[in-house]
Amino acid sequence: MSESLNQPENQPLFASEMTRLVAAVQQLSLARHLNEIVEIVRTVAREISKADGASFVLRDGNQCYYVDEDAIEPLWKGSRFPMDACISGWAMKRGESVAIEDITLDPRVPQDIYRRTFVRSLLTIPIRNADALGAIGIYWAQAHTPSPEEIFLLETLANSTAMAMENVRIHAELEERVKQRTQALVREIRERKKAEEAVRQMAISDSLTGLLNRRGFFLQAQKQYELACRNASPSILVFADLDGLKVVNDTYGHRDGDQMIVDAGAVLKMVLRQSDVVARVGGDEFVVFSMECEQPEIVVKRIQDAVERFNSDNRRRYRLSLSVGVVVCEPDDTVSLEKMVEQADEAMYREKQRRRMTRNSGGKLRSV
Ligand SMILES: Nc1nc2c(ncn2[C@@H]2O[C@H](COP(=O)(O)OP(=O)(O)OP(=O)(O)O)[C@@H](O)[C@H]2O)c(=O)[nH]1
C-alpha cells in the first residue's frame, strides 16, 4: 500500500470507495457468467474513480475486444484492436497499469482512435492471472492524474475480476462436463431400453414370419381372453395348419417351404382384424385369438377365400392350402386358453382328415 493511503485526510473518501469495492468483490464472487462480471466491473470502476467513462476489455487472441462500456459518450463498445495498437494491449502485455494524464502527448496512444472521443486522461489496469485476460479502462474528459488510492482500488478490482473470470471458466467447464455426461447417460439409457425392447420382441416373435411365437401368443391372447371374460363376451380361437409342407420341402427345397409358411402367415394376418392376436406356434401351425366373435363357418370361409385369392394372384410353384379349426371361447375363465387351443387343434385335425378323404376320393384339393 502506498504512503498516501495512510494519510488521515484521505480516509473518509477512501472508506466509502472501499465499501463499494468490497460489495463489488462479493458480487463478483457470486457471478456465474462473464456478462455479469462485465456489468459489475464497468459500473464499479467508474463509480470508484468518479471517471467519465469505463470500459471492459477482453483479450481475444492477439486482439483487444472492447466488450462493454459505461461512459458519458460512446467509446469503442464492440470494437477490436490489435494488442500492439492500443493501450489496453500495452498494459496486458506488460502486466502493468498505465496512467496517462494527457493522451495527446503520449506516443503509446493511437491518436486516430482517440481523437473523436471525449477522452483526455486515462488509466488502464490489466486483468491477469497467469495470462493476460483483459483490462479495465478508465477515462476522464478533463486532465486527471489518478491517485495511488484510486490505482490501488482499481487494481484490487482487477484482481477480483481475474478470480471471478477463472471461477466462471471452471463453472462453465463443470457445467459442460455435467451436460455431456448427462447426455451420454440419456443416450445409454435410451440404447439400453431399445436393446431390451429388441430382446423382448425377439423372445415373443417368430423370426421367419414376424408373427408372434407360442410364448408371445399366450402372453397377449391371455390378456384379451381375461378382458373378454370380464366383459362376459365370447371370443374365438382359430387353429390353422398348412397342408403338404413336407411335400413342398421335399419337392422344391426348404426355401420354398419357408416361403409357404411366410405366405400362410401373411394370408391369415390379412384376413383377420388388426386387434386379433396371430401367431405361428409350430413348424406349420398358426393360431389366432379374436375378441370379435363370429360363426366358426364364416371365419373358416373367409380364410379359405383368402387362400384361394392368394393362389390365383400369386405364381408360386406350390398352391397354398390350410386346414382350419375354430372354437368359440365362452367367457368362462375356468377353461384355460391352452385348453381352447387344444380344442381348436382337434377341430383343425378333423377338418384336415375330411380334406384328406376328399382328396383321396378324387376331390380337387391339391396342395402341390
Ligand atoms: N421349410 C420349413 N419346413 C419346416 C419348418 N418347420 C417344420 N417344417 C417341416 O414341415 C413339415 C411338417 O410336416 P407335417 O406335420 O407332416 O405337415 P405337412 O407336410 O404339411 O402335412 P399335413 O399337415 O399332413 O398336410 C416337416 O417336414 C418339417 O420338417 C420350417 O420352418 N421351414
How would you describe what is shown here?
The N and C termini lie far apart (108 Å). The longest helix is centred in the middle third of the chain and has 57 residues, at 148-204. The protein has helices at residues 11-30, 34-49, 87-94, 111-114, 148-204, 214-230, 245-252, 254-271, 296-313, 337-360; strands at residues 53-60, 63-71, 80-82, 98-100, 121-128, 132-140, 235-242, 277-280, 285-290, 322-329. Helix content is 52%, strand content 18%. It has 2 domains: 3-175, GAF domain (Beta-Lactamase, 2-Layer Sandwich), CATH 3.30.450; 214-360, Reverse transcriptase/Diguanylate cyclase domain (Alpha-Beta Plaits). It is α+β, with helices and mostly antiparallel strands and 368 residues long. α8 (254-271) crosses α9 (296-313). The protein has a 6-stranded antiparallel beta sheet with strand order 3-2-1-6-5-4, sandwiched between helices. It binds guanosine-5'-triphosphate. The site of guanosine-5'-triphosphate has 14 residues, from β7, α7 and α8. This is diguanylate cyclase. InterPro entries: Diguanylate_Cyclase, GAF, GAF-like_dom_sf, GGDEF_dom, Nucleotide_cyclase, Rev_trsase/Diguanyl_cyclase. Pfam families: GAF_2 (PF13185), GGDEF (PF00990).
